[in-house]
Design a protein that fits this description.
Blueprint: H1 5-8, H2 15-25, H3 29-129, H4 131-152, H5 155-174, H6 182-196, H7 199-213, H8 219-234, H9 238-251, H10 257-269, H11 273-286, H12 290-293, H13 298-302
């Protein structure tokens, strides 16, 4: 009898060989029938096994598809989260940049404030370290305030304002530092001229302002010379006025019309016609209207 065990184990034999061997080996029809039945059972079992395997395969494919779908959804969610995180990171980066800029600006502002405070503290320290100068400065500023008040007013109030200013200026001059303050001397000279009318004392005072301001050759030096020359002119000292204004001409700017005009006046008063004309021509070049206003000066008409 044929050993069909190999068929069950998967060792297939060609059907024609099986039929031949079966026909040769079978003793009767019943045996052939049994063999065929056995073969059919084996084939049915094989088919069932194949179907079961296919079913498992399909089930695995379904599970794989489900897992793949789940993975796809997970990847989409991850990508979405990554995009969100990227957006947040970009936003935070912008915020950090803005914050950094604000901090830098804040530090700059603090530095500016500290530098300003340092400068103010230095001024205060210098102010307090020189008590004489501090006292003079306070008195001079107060005197200047009342002087300006008097210049803006008239009548009795003006006289009182000027007296207050002179009193404060005299206190400045009692101070060893204030005594060398040419601004104080100049302001007092102006008050002696305009308020008290004491031209002799005004001349002495303007002369002292000129002397003290000479080392610096600043604006007060020019103003002191011009006022001194004018007081000398009013005191009928035309030659002194001419000599004084020459000092101002030598140190003034080329476009200082007023100083040049004073020089022309005092030159004419002393009979220096050529020099007077030279100064007048300079004045006319600077201010053409001088060619008209000059005739309001008696010294130019008489000369």
């Amino acid at each position: 009898m044929i050993d069909l065990t190999n068929l069950v184990k998967g060792k297939e034999t060609r059907q024609i060989d099986i039929d031949y061997q079966t026909a040769m080996a079978a003793k009767n029809t019943q045996e052939i029938y049994e063999v065929n039945s056995k073969l059919l059972e084996l084939q049915a079992a094989k088919s069932c096994m194949n179907l079961e395997q296919q079913k498992k395969t399909n089930q695995s494919l379904g599970e794989l598809k489900e897992v793949t779908s789940h993975l796809t959804e997970s990847m989409e969610a991850i990508n979405k989260n990554v995009d969100h995180i990227t957006h947040q990171v970009d936003f935070l980066a912008d915020e950090v940049t803005d914050l950094k800029l604000e901090i830098q600006q804040g530090f700059k502002l603090v530095i500016d404030i500290l530098e300003k405070q340092h400068s103010q503290l230095e001024d205060i320290k210098n102010f307090l370290s020189r008590p004489y100068e501090t006292a003079v400065l306070e008195l001079r500023n107060s005197a200047n305030y009342w002087l300006l008040c008097g210049m803006r007013d008239s009548g009795e109030d003006q006289n009182k304002y000027f007296k207050d200013s002179i009193q404060l200026l005299n206190q400045c001059l009692e101070n060893p530092v204030g005594k060398r303050d040419y601004v104080v001397w100049f302001q007092k000279g102006w008050l002696l001229w305009k308020h008290t009318g004491d031209l002799n004392k005004a001349e002495e005072t303007f002369s002292e302002a000129r002397r003290l301001s000479k080392p610096k050759l600043d604006l007060y030096y020019q103003k002191s010379l011009r006022h001194l020359a004018y007081i000398q002119y009013l005191n009928d000292k035309p030659e002194k006025a001419y000599q004084t204004i020459q000092q101002a001409v030598n140190t003034c700017k080329d476009d200082d019309h007023d100083t040049l005009f004073d020089a022309a006046r005092y030159s004419a008063r002393n009979g220096y016609k050529k020099e007077a004309l030279k100064y007048l021509n300079q004045c006319i070049n600077l201010r053409p209207e001088t060619s008209v206003t000059m005739f309001a000066e008696e010294d130019f008409i008489c000369s």
